[in-house]
Amino acid sequence: VIWVARKKNGLSPMEELVLDYIIERKRMDDLVGSIKDGRFREQKFRLSKSGASQIIYLIEDYNLEEVVEFGIDAIKTAISSTQMLNGFFLKRTATIDQSIDYLVRMTRMLKRMYENTTLYAIPDNMIYRSSFLDMKKNLTALHPDRNYLVTYSSYSDLNSKSKPLTLKDTFVRMLMTIRGISVDKAAEIIKNYPTPRKLAEEFDYLTNENDQKKMVMNACNGIIRRKKIGPTLSDKIYQL
After folding, report:
1. Beta bridge partner(s), residue 15
2. Chain-wide mean pLDDT for the chain?
3. In terms of Cα–Cα distance, which of 157, 115, 152, 154 is closest to 7?
């Protein structure tokens, strides 16, 4: 679910801007299915790349028997990682009626927030998938009092499943297939090794196997704990 602001009496597509809020709604049984087939991590990755600063994960209780069969601890882990590692706001509802009520309240709140305010559009011709997130981050740092948004057409292009992925996006997905590597850890790795070839070349540059096993750990040993790579995971990346 996204919300689009339209300029008063505006007719041009440039006068329709996607607001900074996005909701991913999941029924509990669909959440279980997405964890089983791997969609869960892939969908969270796409949400984190959407550019929205406020991402809300709405989980609606449904078919709880399947949840019990799958494992309550596994569901709790998935929910916790969505909040703690991905930084999404998580909302639980018991029925579809509660979900609708929540969407209504969100819509009213956003209307109050954005009505009669000035919004700033990033021109379509300045938006490239590979640099969009960095550009938006820089604009926010330069002008924290402004809302920099994209048109609906640009938003659709940025988040289209059928659009070809950049090399970095592909590498992030490759890394995330390794158990223990989250989006944050993968992003930290590609800061140091932006392509698979670069990673392989850095391994080849070292002659001592112990140094090779610790290479990624040493490169990603910053102050933020969730981005750190431990020795076991660093060794696993080397072996793979």
Report:
1. none
2. 85
3. 115
d(CA 181, CA 184): 8
Looking up tokens 């929910």, which residue turns up?
79
Work out the average pLDDT over 73-86: 83
- How does residue 67 score in pLDDT terms, banded at 50, 70 and 90? low
Q: What angle do CA 192, 139, 155 make, to 5 degrees?
A: 85
Closest by CA to 187, choosing from 200, 205, 208, 173, is: 173
Q: How many CA atoms lie within 13 A of 185 on its CB side?
A: 20
What φ, ψ does residue 141 adopt, rounded to 5°? Answer: -65, -40
Taking the C-alpha atoms of residue 50 and residue 22, their distance in angstroms, rounded to an integer, is 9
CA 213 to chain centre: 29
> Around Cβ 132, how many Cβ atoms within 10 Å?
18
Residues 6+ apart with CB under 8 A from 130: 166, 168
For residue 210, the model assigns a pLDDT of 92
Q: For residue 138, which amino acid is it?
A: N
51 touches 10 (CB < 8 A) = no
CB–CB of 56/21 below 8 Å?
A: yes
